[in-house]
Amino acid sequence: MSRDPVWFHKCYDLNFPIEASFDGLHDLSSFPAAFLSPGELYPLSDVKSEVEVQKRCARNRKRSKRRAIYCPHHGCYLDSVSQKYSLYTESAGTLQSRGICRLSALLLVATHTAVPLVGEWLEAFWCPECQESTWYYVRQGSDRTHEIQSAPRELWMQATGVINATGNPSVGEFTRRQARARSGVRDFGMVR
137, 156 in Cβ contact below 8 A? Predict the structure, then answer.
């Protein structure tokens, strides 16, 4: 259904000359500026820049962001290859060094056997430059920043869920030897 220019003129109340013989083309110089520049219809101050749109999209993003943990030797991104092993402490001095006042630290240690250290853990990471996985002591800052350093041996004694390399000290020598023996002969091999 084609519309003639008179209909267009009546609907939009445009003040420009309409020719009797319409060939489907108009001289755009006769159009009001509102039709030619979108800034007149929609003020350009309301148009968001691409940077503002990206910031808004990042703010509304529901997916978790990748942790920015980098190799201290090469500066490349490290991939996690283990679970997090949380740390705990049993001394008031450790809590004081983390910003808890002396009285609160003593009270925490007295009431709880072990106090968990929030935002600190041990985790193994794979470095593509070194081509090896290494255990690191990770501390998370308040603004999702991470500080890492090689995990010292003493921290493994403060980690939860870690198997003691020397074995459970409450287990006797005989029981430990029986547990390590293969399916071959054990101490009771001759008894039937």
Answer: no
Statement: the pTM of the whole predicted model exceeds 0.90: no
d(CA 90, CA 110): 9
> Strand, coil or helix: what is 88?
strand
Partners of 77 in the β-ladder: 70
Long-range contacts of 34-43 (CB under 8 A, 24+ apart): none
**How far apart are alpha carbons 64 and 134 in whole angstroms?**
24
**What b/e string do you get for 63-80 counting C-beta neighbours within 10 Å, with b at 16 or more?**
eeeeeebebeeeeeebee
| Phi–psi pair at 117, nearest 5 degrees | -95, 105
Alpha-carbon dihedral angle through residues 167, 172, 175, 179, given to the nearest 10 degrees: 10
Nearest to 155 by CA among 180, 142, 178, 136: 136
pLDDT tens digits, 123-140: 999 999 989 899 999 999
Contact 178, 169 (CB under 8 A): no
- Under a CB-based contact definition with an 8 Å cutoff, are residues 71 and 127 in contact? yes
- DSSP helix/strand/coil, 46: helix
